[in-house]
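Hello,

Our lab assistant flagged a job as stuck in the queue for most of the afternoon. It eventually completed. Since we weren't sure the result was trustworthy after the delay, we are filing this so someone can double-check. Below is the sequence as submitted and the structure that was eventually returned. Let us know if re-running is recommended.
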Amino acid sequence: MLRKLAFYIFLILLIGTLGISSVSAQGVSITPRLELSLSSTNPAPGQTITITARSYNEDIRSATVIWTVDGKEIKRGIGATTVEIKAPALGKQNVVVATAIIATGGQVSGDISIGSGSVDLIVESDGYVPPLFPGKIAPAFQNNVKIIAIPHLGNAAGVEYDSKNLVYEWQRNDIAIEGQSGYGKRSVIIEGASVPRPYTISVTVRSRDGVAITKGYVSISPQVPTLTFYVDDPLYGPLFNKAVTSQLNLGTQRESSVLAIPFGFNKPQSGVGNLSYQWTINGSLRSDLVANQAIVLRAPDESAGSSRIGLTIQNSRDILQGALGGFMVLFSAPSKNSSTSF
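-- returned structure --
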């Protein structure tokens, strides 16, 4: 009886030992790997990127490191922990493998797949600019902003995807914009905030099967709106090709109309809308001009001199939108040979 009991105890201990050995063997079989990181996670085709190899188990600074791209060796050297390669064409993938042969024996390796793609982000503010204005302005306080994504992703044949057939995941400061993300949603609208702060908009664009993917970022910092003065010629209209900056010389004509353009302000429905125009002449407020976007300047009779013109524009609804500016107007005495009178 005692012999049988001793046998069973021995058998249990043997099974337990084998079990522990099995777990131990599984742990030993896990080979340390190299960690490969890219200098750019969204490289454009042909862009040079740096790949860095790291190991948290072995000192590879004294190891011989061998780099291959799609099986072809491109670099070998002691402590060669970085390599530069060019990103592949659209739709293509390169497999990069780094193998470190340790000086004390053994080796560790790691691999990474590299594709290419890019996305251009166009930022459009709904702030006011004059008709036919050829440029664009930075978003101003309380403007709504539209961001449009123009992705460049290709399939395995190198054919670029139609942007309408891609999936867009929009984020603001790393928080998902759920209602405006999804299939074919190439743009997002960010409403103007009452407390303007800089923010970052990012978009991840991928094919429906998730094989092709790229990401883009844009930082937006709302600015103070501005105003600019232009001569409003009676024959040619506003001369938008040349702004009135520090001074305006009336010259012999002794009269000129000046138009104020409120760049970046939220567009009024009609006329001046919620904008008030507070004109001053030599520091004196002209309350009769509060609704006037343009004023007519006339030189005094038989006089020469100058006057300081000032203007403050304020949006009564979007209270963070305001701007001020001014210029000197110079006028000379009329010529004695002139028969013109005012």
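-- support follow-up --
The delay was a queue issue, not a problem with the job. The result is valid. The longest helix spans residues 2-28. The first strand starts at residue 35 and ends at 38.
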